[in-house]
Structures are given as structure tokens and as C-alpha cells.
């Protein structure tokens, strides 16, 4: 007997029993592993007859696999199953519709791995697990945004288009932190159509909801207090216990994939980071913020909008390193605020103050404006050698553009010469640099390795012929 089930809505893949300790595991390979390998290899039919899985539980098995392995983004919203002829209540086979060819999936899987590695490599491998989780949280709330069209549910398209629904946030977050060696799974709230992450830190489990903490998403807590876009990067649902997370809307109940994890520890609640209004930037072993001062200053009769580059100290206090004064503009005879963004590229902090793009070296305190966009810039971010920015002209027309950094030109002389090769040699051998090592990713693949040296060497040879 063949039956067809659909996975159309955001939580249609959620079913009641999600523990990987379910009863039907009689084979040497678990049914979860059998499903995973079958999906990964795009098998037309996956034989599950040896496991005696009840018909009512097949959905929970599929849900568990899909939330355990974010790389399974190549499956449509429909699956089929057959019942055993002799035991009509048990699953015999299951089949999926794959939305791409094996070659397409292989290529996109390579892209996905590259994007995950790009994010994960943004923090030192020597960082603590707490620092790694904090870094990934800050990356997500400052680089990604909610998909109100509700069309992107998977981790691949979340990282490609920088937008998705809560399921996409959750799966992408799991993919990145697992790359860092941190366990993460999904908490599923079917009744309120929401999901988030449960992570293991030390010996304890905690809730993290990067969808909720994204400043572009508006929620209410159980006391109907709005959390709105006035905050640039919230941390209200970062490393919470069960009792605390229940105080927020859409978190009244859940089922966790992989087991019923108890989150009872409150060590990381009511910490200083909850009061931060700006995303934290991890750069060369330290934490920084680009903070709007929220006020105008007058200088030589002109009005400026001020922002500070600050170092986040171990006790949570801020040390001002650099104040940036950007000329204020008038609209309807009123001065208006200026948009500021910041992100790390190698050992420098890059950012923009309205249409002025700059970099700052925390060690040397050198500051330089290197590019001026033609119109106001609403937001910007860095990815694989390019700074993408959203322009808004006088007519209110928006358009994304990018600025290509001079990858390989580590001394900033406008050319790639032998001294640049010396720099990448030193970095590859000693992992040390007195320049912006972010520019060493010559082929912009997200890694700095011997391939970048080979390509740079070719460029130098061609330039000297």
C-alpha cells in the first residue's frame, strides 16, 4: 500500500514523537542513519522494512533526520511510503522527491560547506565554546533577516540569500556551530509554529533563538512587551533555561529533536550583554562594537552625527577607541541620523558611516576612509572579498551594490608584487601578520591556504613578464 504525505507548511514536517530513542531500531544501522544515507545519496526508494516502524511514527523519523542534518536541503515538500504487505501497520519503504540532480546537489553542497566554513572561521579556533556561540549569534542577528514571504525554510537558501523563516535560522545555526564542534539541535513548537535551537555548553543545555533576537523581527513576550527593531541586535534569548524561555511568546512548549533535553542552568542569564544595543564584532581575538552616539555635534558651524568604535572589556564595560563624526544631512529642514555598520575583515574592523566606508586597525589605531558611495547607505556587510551595501537615492529607490576589496594587495600599494608574496608566506608558515590578513583570501573561496599563494604567485609572474 502506497501513501503520499505533504510537507507544505513551515511545521508540516513536525510530528509528535521526535526522540532518536524510538523503539524501532533492530538493525545494525539505525533507521535514522538509513534514512540519512538514503536521502544524501538520493536513493529513489529507501528500504525500512527491517525496523518495524509504525505508520504513525514515520513522520517523526523524517523530521528528526531533517533537523539533525541541515545539509539535506535538496528534498521537496512531499514524501511517499509503503506499508508492509504482511504487517500493514509497519513501514516497508519510503521515497522522496529530489528537487535537483545529483550533480547539482554536489555543487550546492560544496557551496553550502564553503558558506558554513566562512562563518565558522571568523572566530579563532582557540576561543571558548561560549565565545563561539556568542560570535555565531552576533553574526546571525546582524547579517540575516526574516523572510516574511515565508518561502525559504532550509539552511542552504538561508545562507545564500541571507533570509529565511525560523526553521531556516535554526538549521543554519546548527550547521555552523556543529562545524565548530558544538552540539546543537532543534526545539519544535508545533502549536505556535515556531522553532529554535538547543545547544550544549559544558555539561548543560540551553535555549538560543536567533530568529527572535534578530532586530528585524518583532515579537511580544508573555507580558505583551514588544521587542522591536529599535535594538540593533538583541540577546534576550541567548543561553536561557526552560523556565525563562517560557516567558516569551512562541516558547510555551516544545519537543526537542534527539531527546528531551532539560535546560535548568541559569548561569548565563541577566548578563551584561543583554543590555547591548549593537552587534558585537569579533576581530583578531577581541570584541568590538560600532555604536551610534545618538546625538549631533557641532564643529566649525557644521553638524555631525557621532559614532564610536568601542572595545568590549571582559567585565562588559566599553572602552572608546575612535569617534567618527559624519556630516549630517537635512530633510525637510531637519537633521537626520546616519546609518553605521561594522564587521571584521581579517585583523581590521571595516564599516560605513552613511556613504563613507572606512577601516580601523585596533592595534595601531589607524583609521582610513577608502571609499565613498554615491548615495546614502542603509546597511552593509562583508562576504568573500566583497562589501555589499544597500543604497538609497534621493527618490527613495533602493539597490544593492558591492565594493571589491583588493585581495592579495596586502600593503595597499595598488599592485600585487613580491612583497605581497612574502606576506602570505609568513602567514601560512607562522599564522602571524602585521597587515590585514583578511586580504590574503586571493581566490575569495573563504579559506587562506596554499591555493591563494599559488594564484598570487601567478599574478606576480604575469605582472613582471
Structure description:
This protein is α+β, with helices and mostly antiparallel strands. The chain is built from ten helices and 26 strands. The protein has helices spanning 31-40, 58-68, 102-120, 129-143, 155-161, 166-179, 210-213, 242-245, 418-430, 450-464, and strands spanning 2-6, 46-47, 75-83, 91-98, 145-146, 163-164, 184-189, 194-201, 204-208, 219-220, 226-227, 238-240, 255-256, 281-283, 286-299, 302-312, 318-327, 329-331, 334-336, 340-345, 348-353, 356-360, 367-372, 376-383, 386-392, 398-404. Strand 20 (340-345) and strand 21 form a beta hairpin. Helix 3 (102-120) crosses helix 5 (155-161), helix 5 (155-161) crosses helix 6 (166-179) and helix 9 (418-430) packs antiparallel against helix 10. The protein is globular and about 90 Å long. The protein starts with a strand and ends with a helix.
Helix content: 10-25%
Beta percentage is 25-35%
Main sheet overview: 5 strands, antiparallel
Q: Report the mean per-residue pLDDT as an integer.
A: 82
Count of individual helical segments: 10
Q: Radius of gyration, Cα only, in angstroms? A: 25 Å
Low-confidence stretches: 6-27, 219-233
Shape: globular
Q: What is the number of beta strands?
A: 26
- How are the strands of the biggest sheet laid out side by side? 12-9-8-7-13
Gap from first CA to last CA: 71 Å
Look at the helices and sheets and give the structural class: alpha+beta
Amino acid at each position: 500500500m502506497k501513501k503520499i504525505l505533504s510537507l507544505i507548511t513551515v511545521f508540516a514536517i513536525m510530528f509528535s514523537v521526535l526522540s532518536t530513542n524510538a523503539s524501532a531500531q533492530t538493525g545494525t544501522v539505525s533507521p535514522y542513519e538509513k534514512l540519512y544515507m538514503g536521502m544524501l545519496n538520493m536513493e529513489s526508494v529507501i528500504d525500512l522494512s527491517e525496523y518495524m516502524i509504525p505508520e504513525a511514527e514515520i513522520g517523526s523519523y523524517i523530521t528528526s533526520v531533517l533537523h539533525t542534518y541541515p545539509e539535506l536541503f535538496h528534498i521537496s515538500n512531499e514524501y511517499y511510503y509503503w506499508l508492509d504487505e504482511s504487517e500493514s501497520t509497519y513501514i516497508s519503504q519510503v521515497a522522496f522527491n529530489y528537487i535537483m540532480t545529483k550533480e547539482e546537489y554536489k555543487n550546492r553542497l560544496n557551496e553550502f560547506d564553503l558558506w558554513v566554513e566562512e562563518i565558522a572561521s571568523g572566530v579563532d579556533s582557540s576561543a571558548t565554546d561560549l565565545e563561539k556561540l556568542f560570535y555565531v549569534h552576533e553574526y546571525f542577528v546582524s547579517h540575516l533577516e526574516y523572510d516574511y514571504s515565508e518561502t525559504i525554510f532550509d539552511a542552504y537558501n538561508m545562507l545564500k540569500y541571507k533570509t529565511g523563516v525560523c526553521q531556516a535560522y535554526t538549521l543554519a545555526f546548527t550547521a555552523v556551530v556543529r562545524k565548530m564542534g558544538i552540539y546543537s539541535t532543534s526545539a519544535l513548537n508545533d502549536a505556535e509554529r515556531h522553532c529554535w535551537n538547543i545547544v550544549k555548553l559544558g555539561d548543560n543545555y540551553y535555549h538560543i533563538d536567533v530568529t527572535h533576537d534578530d532586530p528585524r523581527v518583532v515579537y511580544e513576550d508573555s507580558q505583551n512587551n514588544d521587542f522591536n527593531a529599535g535594538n540593533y541586535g538583541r540577546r534576550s534569548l541567548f543561553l536561557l533555561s526552560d523556565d525563562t524561555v517560557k516567558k516569551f511568546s512562541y516558547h510555551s512548549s516544545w519537543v526537542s529533536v534527539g531527546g528531551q533535553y532539560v535546560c535548568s542552568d541559569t548561569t548565563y542569564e541577566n548578563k551584561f550583554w543583554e543590555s547591548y544595543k549593537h552587534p558585537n564584532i569579533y576581530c583578531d581575538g577581541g570584541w568590538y562594537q560600532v555604536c551610534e552616539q545618538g546625538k549631533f555635534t557641532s564643529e566649525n558651524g557644521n553638524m555631525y552625527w557621532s559614532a564610536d568604535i568601542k572595545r568590549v572589556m571582559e567585565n562588559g564595560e566599553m572602552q572608546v577607541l575612535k569617534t567618527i563624526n559624519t556630516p549630517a544631512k537635512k530633510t525637510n529642514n531637519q537633521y537626520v541620523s546616519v546609518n553605521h555598520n561594522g564587521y571584521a575583515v581579517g585583523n581590521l574592523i571595516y564599516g560605513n558611516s552613511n556613504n563613507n566606508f572606512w577601516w580601523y586597525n585596533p592595534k595601531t589605531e589607524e583609521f582610513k576612509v577608502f571609499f565613498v558611495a554615491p548615495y546614502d547607505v542603509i546597511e552593509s556587510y562583508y562576504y568573500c572579498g566583497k562589501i555589499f551595501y544597500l543604497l538609497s537615492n534621493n527618490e527613495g529607490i533602493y539597490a544593492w551594490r558591492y565594493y571589491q576589496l583588493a585581495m592579495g594587495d596586502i600593503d595597499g600599494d595598488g599592485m600585487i608584487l613580491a612583497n605581497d608574496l612574502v606576506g602570505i608566506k609568513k602567514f601560512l608558515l607562522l599564522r602571524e601578520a602585521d597587515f590585514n590578513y583578511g586580504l590574503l583570501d586571493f581566490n575569495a573561496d573563504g579559506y587562506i591556504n596554499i591555493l591563494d599563494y599559488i594564484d598570487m604567485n601567478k599574478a606576480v609572474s604575469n605582472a613582471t613578464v
